[in-house]
Amino acid sequence: MTAIETDGLTKRYGDLEAISDVDLTVERGEIFGFLGPNGAGKSTTIDVLLDFIRPTAGRASVLDDDPQENPRAVREQIGILPDEYSLYDRLTGREHVVFAIEMNDAADDPDEILERVGLADAADQRAGDYSKGMGQRLALGMALVGDPDVLILDEPSSGIDPNGMHEIRTLLREEADRGATVFFSSHALEQVEAICDRVCVLDDGELLAVSTVENLRDSLDSRSVLVLTLDANPDPDLDLNDDHGLLELPDVTDVERTETALRIECADPGVKSAAISRVEDTGASVVDIDVEQASLEDLFAELTTDSTEGADPIETPGGERA
Ligand SMILES: Nc1ncnc2c1ncn2[C@@H]1O[C@H](COP(=O)(O)OP(=O)(O)OP(=O)(O)O)[C@@H](O)[C@H]1O
Predict the structure, then answer these.
(1) What is the model's pTM?
(2) Ligand 1 test: best mutation among 9, 13, 192, most atoms within 8 Å of CB?
(3) N or C: which end of the chain has fewer CB within 10 A?
(4) ipTM value of the model?
């Protein structure tokens, strides 16, 4: 059953298309990473889901309700940690949570919530004296009130240290285990990959890929760079700028020449031995062989760079192309 669905979702501000024809499906109970650089369109998408703004075209649904037709029903089922939230400086942490409980007509124990977000010791401190990370934890605690079916978290890691993020990941996993859907929007890949079941990558308003983190990793395992260090005193007749015919090999996607080495991008690991033979056949002497694995960071950078200029799309096995 789907928790969140968008179909051709588009939002224009004048000439600017903040999101373009976004088709997205998030299943119930999954922790879904909504990934993209600044200005990608993440907050715009979230604002449409909450009916804070209306789409120019397309539609969205949250737990089968259309936010435009039934905004109240949608918001009642969502716990939201917004990108920009405001706290009341003079109210304590506990008073904030009590306020959220009353607003939601919920029966939560405020101290239990404060404990879960690591603020038990600061419950009676005024929010005006909280650090940024403490404020973020408090806003997250308020989002948990009433055990919402969908948690929408816009940049939840902002201001939170690595230990804190570990606690928050545990908390989000508990939420998913009780059946909640977690929609985790972030530009920080390392946060998303550590917790999410599936991720999508949005850039310039367009959905570039949807995949499991595992499939993204698998696709990277088959993408590597072979670095061949050549004899520093090669045959003087050897053309150092030559690509050694490597680009004629299928699955060699790029060749870069440094002073003493060749960096050969391989789309398939099986091509490496053919590449080495090809270089040696031209009379060059290979003195060292190294393999650089691509990281998820590389993939994210590649997906979100020049996507509008016809860069080659990256397939994520088992994932969808958007
Ligand atoms: N009210 C608005 N009027 C005009 N343009 C807007 C408005 N809101 C957003 N935009 C533009 O829409 C695009 C998407 O913005 P959005 O805030 O959705 O990105 P984002 O992915 O959430 O970015 P960030 O990670 O920085 O929060 C940006 O180019 C932004 O400038």
Answers:
(1) 0.77
(2) 13
(3) N
(4) 0.97
